[in-house]
Amino acid sequence: MKTLLIVRHAKSSWEYPVDDKDRPLKLRGIKDAHLVANYISDKIDTPDIIFSSIANRALHTCAIFTRCLEYPFNKISIKENMYDFGGSGLLATIKSCDDEVDTLMVFGHNHAITAVVNTYGSQYFDNVPTSGAVVIQFDTDSWHDINEGKTILNVFPKDLK
After folding, report:
1. 14 three-class SS
2. What is the pTM of this model?
3. What is the tally of structural domains in the chain?
């Protein structure tokens, strides 16, 4: 059994003249990430490993969640190919995960997040919103072999306000 916890980065700001990878979170994004992270902290198993996109907004979201989950920040693996908007880099990262890992958590970007959730989960979402978290379980022993999974939890900020 493999469990994938997939999180879209929190709401980011466009008000600074920085490269896309360097965009920071908005205050609303920080608050929403804390809201979702605190809610799921007692509803999920602690991840064996966490992967994050290299983008500032994904890493900051990841930091908020790891603090709530009491996961050591120095164990996060930052993946350049997860700075992906179509889904191929995100999916390649997931499928290449070591099979000794049973619970994987990833932080990335849309449309990749929504595409992976809708392709591999059992519940369809028009859009996984910023700070949204979806948990999918797969009846397999290999990340490489994941296909249809079962969506067991979805938490979006609007559900908690």
Report:
1. coil
2. 0.96
3. 1
